[in-house]
Target: Haloacid dehalogenase
Amino acid sequence: MLGPERLGTANLLTESFTRRGVVVFFCDVDDTLVDTSWLYKIFMSEYASYIARLNGKIDSEVVRETMGNAIRGLRSTFRVHPTILKESARLAALQYGVDFYSDKSVSQVSRLMDLYTSAPPAFDGVLEAMEVIHASGVRIIAMSHSPEDWTEKKLAQNGLLKFFNEIYGVDTTKFKDGPAWRYVFGKYQIDPAHAMIVGDSWATDVKPALENQVLPQNIIRVMTDYTHANIGRIDGIQEVKYFRDVPGAIVSG
Model:
């Protein structure tokens, strides 16, 4: 049950969505609602420490940077499929003279891949922000570039799943690009002119939204420290520092 102040915010959101012509609120998940980059860092650091320990000369941070560079270099081939993480682990082991196929390495890689069954924490204020957005009555769809079962787990473990009407995960072997968004608009029979898009990535949220004729004033970009999401800045798009600022941005915009 929302208190009077938060109920007032929900009512203002209802009015704002009506004024904007928005009937569907699309929301990215990774690094917008939950800190997935932090989770990657934790798991990759653990594996990097293993490689550095066996190498005996290299610093674990250098190993993790090597893995990160490998991931970025492999995106054009693997997109964000889990293969990309395992391959970065193999390349790091090869570069630093560690037997990737030893029993110990196999165990460490298995632990690394447990990332895909783990859930990162939500950013501060996300639960409260989603609560008032949901209370506004707008239809809410998660648009993620992760398998749907993993996305549901991330949302559920942070108490967020109940706010979503649908969960959609773009095939991890493909790009979250203009055609992917166009497919989703068709799948849910949504006119892009009546959609709002909120996400952290210029390349996979903002740019494809504009390509599909989502109105610029109905796109909000959540700032992030995630390097890949900061590539390709587009002028004229409203930005907020944290997702918790989204309700206020919608009302004031």
The first helix runs from residue 4 to 20. The chain has two domains: 4-34+119-252, 37-117.
